[in-house]
Amino acid sequence: MPLSVGFMGSGRFAARCLELISERARPLWVLTNVPREAGRGMKLQNTPVFDAARSLGLPLYTTARLSTDAERVEWLKANAPDAILVIDFGQMIKEPVLSMARLGCINVHPSRVPQYRGSAPLQRAIMDGLSSTAVSIFRLDAGMDTGPLLAQPELEISPSDTLSTLSEKAAKLGCETLLRYICDVPADGWRFTPQSGEGASFAPKIDKSEGKVNWCEESAKKIFDKIRGIGESPGVFCTVRGKRLRIRGSEVAEGAGGEPGRCEIVGGFPVVSCARGALKLTEVQPEGKKTLPAGDWARGARLEKGEKFT
Question: Is-annotated flag, keyword Protein biosynthesis (predicted)?
Fold first, then answer.
């Protein structure tokens, strides 16, 4: 019989994990952040976990800040399961919540902790050009992703992976591993290993300004990896003819040459020289317009050889 679990989460990764976990171990309840203003219209939007829990028909609760929400903390104390699953919640968990459940708060973090601790591990791993990372299942303590490890399966990063594809792979691997413990391993068989602080690194939240391409300083491979990591959100962009051009798809091009930022048209597609190498743009979104193949944009804009991208 599966252990009883509660679920705390907010983001898209958490929502996908909630769907996968619920297939075998239906949470007793789900706690997520309150709706927050987002988008151009700054309208209140529910978290992805809110929407997922509602579609699954799970008991759903919200909190603005759990650490100061005495009423919700008391409710958790009265409704503590065997383990509280905390995934992509967006808030630090403190005592007394950390030790309310007899097995503690269990986190699924898509990184090889102690490397890439923090809120953007997959984005940073892709941007750094890694070929592999891991998914870490650990028990939360008072630190930032410093708790003892229960499991840490390897996760391959293919050259074609973007944030969305890698996130899906990480969610499936992490939840499959976690469910083995929840459903198949008696609680007295759980073994936690303290994390080593050696080689620790931090993966901070992505700032929108990081999406600006610097053709004069960044290599083609670096820009390509940046587009894979944050091209979907918050986006990678440059400026052409004084207007913002969002780059949604690219390939590292053979050959190079020319002044960084200068463009050639090769096979109908714009190819831009970088600090090292050149980048073929395959999909772009001009300012105020929809996403389209870069070749169609180049023809429509009558892009010429030597035009400057900044």
Answer: yes
